[in-house]
Amino acid sequence: MNYYLLALAVFVVDIILYAILPLYNNANPSFLGLTTFYAYQIILLIVSSLLFLIPALLSKEKR
After folding, report:
1. pTM (global) more than 0.90
2. How far apart, in whole angstroms, are the C-alpha atoms of residue 63 and residue 57?
3. Closest by alpha carbon to 9, among 58, 61, 63, 42?
4. Relative to the CA of 53, which of 3, 4, 14, 33 has its CA 20 to 30 Å away?
5. Tens-digit pLDDT profile for the chain (63 aa)?
6. What domain range includes position 52?
7. Residue 21 DSSP label
């Protein structure tokens, strides 16, 4: 049951991080050679993958 609560918490954090994405839509500075809007999406893709990997690995250990 703790796996589901942790997965839900990660999902909520991920939704909040993606919800503030439109704030960066108007920013023009570049980061890593990309606009901030695209760099933020790439960084969040990596962060989200790592965040969702944690509950998956924890549930695998319990089996």
Report:
1. no
2. 10
3. 58
4. 33
5. 577 888 888 889 888 988 887 776 665 666 667 777 788 888 889 989 998 888 888 877 766
6. 2-62
7. G
Half-sphere exposure of 47 (CA within 13 A, CB side): 14
Q: State the Cα angle at 25 between 22 and 28, rounded to 5°.
A: 155
Instruction: Give the total number of structural domains in the chain.
Output: 1
Do the beta carbons of residue 30 and residue 42 sit within 8 Å? no
CB neighbours (10 Å) of residue 55? 19
